[in-house]
Design brief:
Among the domains are: about 100 residues, no CATH class; about 140 residues. Helices cover about 65% and strands about 0% of the residues. The chain is built from 18 helices and two strands. Strand 1 and strand 2 form a beta hairpin.
């Protein structure tokens, strides 16, 4: 009886794979089996292919076929009578018995991410993360922060945008305040590493605006407005900083600022939003070193956004409150920079400027 049932299951699986449209996306399952493009690294290529064959395809099979692969009672029958299913127009897959506890570990999955970082090749990141999510390999917040920082250093924040755009597949949600904080600080850093000038600043602003638009979606929103990142000063302050830096850079180079009214309007819009969100900024002493790092990441772009916007005279009415707030925030941020133990933060362009101001003030003879 069991053998007959097994035969029917296999026959049904084969019929489904033949009769269904030959598409990778749908061969009896709603899962999307990732495919990978070759990279210059043979080791990375082999690791990606291993996960695809040993993890992603089996976990993306229709439920019936997954049972035939993972249920121990079907193992002998499957070995004796191998089944080949068509999972695309050009690819077939042979069902073989598998044990979930023998599949590549989560550590092995993270090792593949490290290979991408080491090689600087993020071309397969979206597909790989999609496969991990489909297979139940969770990516922690700390790991997402690591991925974002490394992608930023490689100039690949556009890939992170694609991860967020396909968040339902990759699992990346910008509703997580820790993730959003690191992301927007890296957008600041992208421009800061280039002295807030040139095409890098233009690109950083464009990406920041794209991320901001994504954050309007439910998937990237927190139901609690007090915790929702898009209403936090560090998000709005970064947008203000990049918008003001772009306009000031073009003006300093005696270039025509295209769509001047639009640029002025943009700075005014972000300035008004930052003013409205000011009560959410935390100026009290952080309780520990980890929180101090978070606070500095928030305060640097907020401080610099206000400072730069004050230099754009056409928006003086909207930025008028920032004069007093800069006076309040500057000494707090300087003290935070003196205490924080993080090279990325203290090497930042804005941080160096503030620490220089502090050093000069301390060196002045007291009356």
């Amino acid at each position: 009886m069991a053998q007959t049932a097994m035969s029917r299951l296999f026959q049904s699986s084969v019929r489904q794979s033949i009769l269904r449209p030959a598409q990778v996306r749908n061969y009896g399952s709603n899962a999307v089996i990732p495919t990978f493009t070759p990279t210059p690294s043979t080791e990375l290529n082999e690791a990606l292919q291993r996960f695809r064959e040993e993890v992603f395809i089996p976990n993306g099979l229709p439920v019936r076929q997954q049972k035939s692969v993972f249920k121990p009672k079907y193992a002998k029958q499957l070995l004796n009578e191998p089944i080949v299913v068509k999972i695309s127009e050009t690819e077939e897959y042979t069902l073989t018995p598998k044990k979930r506890h023998e599949m590549p570990s989560k550590k092995a999955a993270m090792d593949v991410l490290h290979m991408m970082v080491t090689t600087g090749d993020f071309s397969n990141l979206v597909a790989y993360l999609s496969g991990l999510k489909m297979s139940g390999y969770a990516i922690s917040t700390n790991r997402w922060e690591y991925i974002i920082r490394k992608a930023s250093m490689a100039g690949k924040l556009s890939v992170i945008y694609e991860c967020a755009r396909q968040g339902n597949r990759t699992g990346l949600s910008l509703a997580d305040q820790n993730i959003a904080r690191v992301l927007f600080f890296e957008l600041h850093q992208t421009a800061s590493r280039n002295k807030l000038q040139g095409k890098e600043t233009v690109q950083a602003l464009g990406l920041a605006q794209s991320f901001s638009t994504l954050m309007q979606q439910d998937f990237h929103s927190d139901w609690n407005i007090e915790k929702d990142p898009k209403y936090q000063p560090f998000v709005i302050g970064t947008l203000l900083e990049l918008a003001a830096a772009q306009v000031l850079d073009k003006t300093a180079k005696n270039q025509e600022v295209s769509q001047s009214a639009q640029n002025t309007s943009l700075i005014s819009e972000y300035a008004q939003k930052l003013d409205a969100s000011w009560d959410r900024i935390n100026l009290t002493k952080p309780p520990n070193s980890s929180e101090l790092v978070h606070r500095v990441r928030e305060n640097i772009p907020v401080y610099n956004g206000m400072r730069l916007s004050l230099r754009w005279s056409k928006t003086s009415e909207d930025t008028q409150p920032f004069k007093a707030r800069l006076g309040e925030l500057e000494p707090i941020l300087i003290q935070q920079l003196k205490e924080v133990k993080n090279g990325q933060l203290t090497d930042d362009l804005v941080s160096k400027r503030l620490l220089k101001i502090a050093a000069e003030a301390e060196a002045e003879p007291k009356a």
